[in-house]
């Protein structure tokens, strides 16, 4: 049986017969009270006290496997992906995707499949992806003494903050976990 010591980012847990992915976690220690472990789950934040047995124990799903899928398109039913081996298509809801604003046609993602139910549990993009800047205001010439940032719209419609020297039409590398600009990419 898992305990609070087993919590880590990306862990899939079963709570009240529902599966959740741990997005963030930490602990609060005080000198007089027991440590409290908290976890931010996909769309839900809970506090777990390490001295409360009914909250301390998590039931982890039997097993899961990850498969490579290719993003095809988004429509009213959700996000459509294709298995790269069998060419079978599945539809996934937006809340199951870790950074849907960065998805573009043809991107490869890892989809975690619950082996008990054969249903998708989560969709994870690579940590870093290359995107094209579709709109950006021109930067002021000579304003490079400080790390001044400006908003830029990238493929997929997401807006991120980029340095002043990044222009429309350029390729940039973006961290999908934080949504931050990493570097400019040469074609």
The number of helical runs is 1
Counted beta strands: 14
Low-confidence stretches: 43-62
Oligomer kind: single chain
Provide the β-strand percentage band: over 45%
Strand order of the main beta sheet, please? 7-6-5-8-9
What is the helix content?
A: under 10%
Order of helices and strands: EEEEHEEEEEEEEEE
Structure description:
With 187 residues, this protein is mainly beta. The protein has one helix and 14 strands. The chain has one helix spanning 53-56; strands at 12-15, 18-28, 36-41, 44-49, 64-75, 78-83, 89-92, 108-114, 119-124, 128-136, 149-154, 159-163, 171-175, 180-185. A hairpin with a 4-residue loop joins strand 11 (149-154) and strand 12 (159-163). It is flat, with a radius of gyration of 20 Å. The termini are far apart. Residues 43-62 have low confidence and may be disordered.
